[in-house]
């Protein structure tokens, strides 16, 4: 069993750290929130007084932070962990940040002889709690293999997309595509409903035809077609509109940098931004279904 | 075994009629093309001298025609089949036309006491030849049940979406969604490629994540990721860009009529129209992958 | 001075009829609303007991109605005016309807030897009251010339776009473009504001640069940049979002019919439909400015 | 008359420097191209052997460079001009770069006590040659006033949008709006043409209606409507598609940074990128007119 330092105990990081303890690992955690630390302590984690303590004797340091500047702040700069990390520690950043920052972090840690992988996740808070996350990794093959020791206790799939940064790229490609599936499926269902079709029947038909996609399989955006999904629970829980808007912003940054043409992804960014701006940022991202409600005829 | 009249022996209708013969039915066909009639004769069909002959003694009259006005021309008007059809014949129109025309046709035939279902197909020329089409039907439940006698010899799935016209609505909803899946998947793959990812690896990751959809499963738009699909054959064969543009036009007509908001479907209509206009109308619709190629940096 | 029959006394038609009286014409009106008739009587019009009376001795019959089926209902069919109109009467339809219906109406009236022009207007309720409307006409040159006798008393510009129906086409082209100008100008101003620019200064700069357009000249969508426009009056009055959505629907119908590629116009249709659906249908169309408010950063 | 250092003698910078000489200023130039230097010498400029020479005794240093990293390279870093510039010199950067880089440059020069304004231009190569450019400036009011001494010899309009960086913001807002005007006007004209209207007549009508905008006034995208514009010269010359795509990329960067919702600007970026990718990058940006040609009916 491994010795693990864990930084960032939010809605995702908290349950991930708890699952590591369940897996038998020795876990030392750090967060700025006392409440989060208290919960982690109750789950069996040791609590570090300051961030640098999590590196002591660690086989792995794992971070799960909100955005690029938090990650840069933790690892780089004058007080960054790159000064205290041992060359035998593998750094695994599970945050969703830009590929550029991930690559930069990998390169700077490498200069100090420290191995790094980016390993953003999909699966949401539910997957974090259930230990069924998917990790999409970027880094050396050997490093990704080594990381499985801990990743397997927090998730059920570990993919390697390529070198450092590739995990972030693959994740935003997937999430950009997911936003397109969700918006497109919502439109198709609403168009059918507007013409008198039963959304359950239409969902079933498209599921068995060339319209089949993940949202029809497990995350139908139309209320009361499927049980146990956010759309049947007033769009509470799940993956927030605000977070989808953030990921789509990262996707467009990547597209701008590479000159990629992404008409569909540009449109979904604007749809999700508008939807958030209209007050739906804290709803599940399948609530975009409501956004494409047909205009009532006058 | 049934007596069937079959009108319209194009790329789809020809093999469909042939499969009916293989299924043991007595099939009389009509088409304006001598070559098509000759092929049908070789496949075991009887050839009608004029269109009205196909109704004689028919349990079913099936039509597979290019557009609304052909269907209206065959069944309605002074010389339309509604004058010669028997009340014991079930009319099955497999053409992809507007829901409005399908409903009108159903209503007018009903006035003469003739039963009607619309039964547009998905599965393309390959499915027509292999007898694995999907039929998406609109009409009375009893009529759809009765139609299975012949539909099952041409396809493997028969869905009922609702009353007359509902088959057309469900089909365009599905195909609008399909266009969104195809364009979105193409963009996501191109964005990954632009950032150095291997499209096979990225496809595999998204297939097992929330980006999963029909195109990644069986119709990957990126050349050489998958065998036996149009993208690996220079985008030849398959479902033409021109036909997708036609279906997306029908979808937008339906959206305009109902006041539905379809930002994604409007965009794919414009993408497919532009792509056709740029000379790619006769390529498979997965060729939209080439349309979102990143701009070469200067 | 002319004898005029006038059908349809809504927000536009009422003041137009009144201006004809001021111009010295003899005006007989018809509407289903008693209140509207009362107002017209007060303005000096004669009131017809039924619609066919307005044709009696009329040099011109002018109609200003909400949609295609109202226009068809008035002129065509068993009780249509085409039965009572004299060959010396010029029919001027000022409604905004599809070009197709206008062409059909022109053709059917021509069969009875009656001259017709379509003459949709721009300028809104304000222009109708002030007598400063613009008429965009379709029909024979001589008919358009003849119509000036009355059009000049209701407006200040009379254009001829081509034959019957061309007035409607030109109007929807113009209004589709207007929606693009409005949405684009709103976005540009919001982008500047989000980066700390003063919208008055930015408006002034773009007005004198290549971003110059009608909205910056006379209809700035940002509150308090310009006096006397809807944006400075809580978006009350002006040209309603619902009406813009209607015109954009007509534009997309025309695009679908002709195979035109209109990515911008498709997008504005969806923006205006969503905006209406979100409860802003009765606000001025410049309220789309609020729709593109930047998302507040978390 | 002033002593001026000028860096960057491309299609824009060359004629701008020549106009300064005509205005009576003493101009020392630097560029990496021998040919450009030779032309400048012929126009009466002194030629610097290396870039730092242009700062000697200069009242103004003006730069006109392709992109952010060129500007940063010239002014900042170990060999940057910030080391040799005098506190009495006003730096005027006329390049079109990100507002972020402009602000950074202003701040870093200010630390050395050197005044800076960003002053991107509109008006293109034609305006540069004719001395009729528009300068959109960001910086202190006094600095912008002082800059007029030289700007007035290269252009006819000088605007101040706000503090350092504001010039860049205003320029990209304007150019994003311009792309929307151009694409929207192209669509409207094509829609009219597809319905049989004469583009000259339709242009004239919209020019006098609410569709009026800069492109209809001076830069009609439809061939042979207007003389002396790129559309009437096979889309040669003018403002290149590649450059518009670059500016739209800057606009989207700014939108991403601020959370602005720009559905129209996102779409035009994708349209211009696709158009460039299809081989039209070196044509004038009004060639987007060809992109929205109606699909030929089958």
From TrEMBL, chains A, B, C, D:
Q: Give a GO molecular function annotation for the protein.
A: NADP binding
In terms of Gene3D superfamilies, this protein maps to: N-(1-d-carboxylethyl)-l-norvaline Dehydrogenase, domain 2 (1.10.1040.10), NAD(P)-binding Rossmann-like Domain (3.40.50.720)
Any one GO BP annotation for this protein = branched-chain amino acid catabolic process
Known EC number(s)? 1.1.1.31
Q: Which residues form the active site?
A: 171
| Enzyme class per UniProt | oxidoreductase
What pathway annotation does it carry? Answer: Amino-acid degradation; L-valine degradation
Record Pfam families: NAD_binding_11, NAD_binding_2
NAD keyword on record: yes
Q: Which residues form the signal peptide?
A: none
**Swiss-Prot/TrEMBL catalytic activity:** 3-hydroxy-2-methylpropanoate + NAD(+) = 2-methyl-3-oxopropanoate + NADH + H(+)
Question: InterPro entries in the record, alphabetically?
Answer: 3-OH-isobutyrate_DH-rel_CS, 6-PGluconate_DH-like_C_sf, 6PGD_dom2, 6PGDH_NADP-bd, HIBADH, HIBADH-like_NADP-bd, HIBADH-related, NAD(P)-bd_dom_sf
Q: Which NCBIfam families match?
A: HIBADH (TIGR01692)
Q: Which family does it belong to?
A: Belongs to the HIBADH-related family.
Q: What is this protein called?
A: 3-hydroxyisobutyrate dehydrogenase
What is the gene name? Answer: mmsB
